C-alpha cells in the first residue's frame, strides 16, 4: 500500500505531510507512558508484516494490520505507523521520504476510524460479537486505506492512473480477507489472555 516516490503532486504531498504531522502530534499526546512499550511492539509487528509485499505498479500489496493498531491504540496508530514507514523508507526504500506523510495518512486514518467504530460497537454489543467486529475493522481499515490511496493518485494525475487504480483495488481484495482473519484471531486471543490491552 506504499505509494512510491515521485508519483504524487506537490500539493498532495504537502497536504498529506501536514495532516499526518497533526495526526502524529495528537497520537503522541494520546498514548500514556505505560503503553509506549506496547506501541513499540505494534510498530515492530507492522514493520515486519509489511516487509513481505508484492509490487503492483507504483504501489505494493502486503499485510497492513492498521485495523488492529487502531483497535489497540486509537490515535496512537499515527506515530506507530509513521515510525515504521520511516524505517521502511530509510532501510528498504519502500514509499520514500517525500511520500511519507501521505503514506502515513493513508494507513493511519483508517486505523483511527475503524478503531473508534470497533470501540463504539463493542461497548454496546454482546461479548461474543467482538471477534466479528474486529474482523470488520481489519478489513475495513484496508478498504479505507485503498480508497485514500486511490484518491491521492486521482488528485495527482487523475486519468493517467485509472488502469492502476483498478488493479490496486482488485489486488487488495484478498488482503482484506486475510486482515479480517488475522485481526479477529489476535483480538480473540487478547480477550482470553490479556483483556486489559483491549479498549
UniProtKB/TrEMBL annotation:
Keyword Transmembrane helix: yes
Subcellular location: Cell membrane
Keyword presence, Iron-sulfur: no
GO cellular component: plasma membrane
Membrane topology designation: Multi-pass membrane protein
Pfam family, one: CbiM
TM ranges: 36-56, 63-91, 97-120, 132-155, 161-190
Main location: membrane
GO biological process, one term: transition metal ion transport
Keywords: Cell membrane, Membrane, Transmembrane, Transmembrane helix, Transport
Cited NCBIfam families: PRK06265.1-4 (NF004904), PRK06265.1-5 (NF004905)
Protein name according to UniProt: Cobalt/nickel transport system permease protein
Source organism: Solimonas aquatica
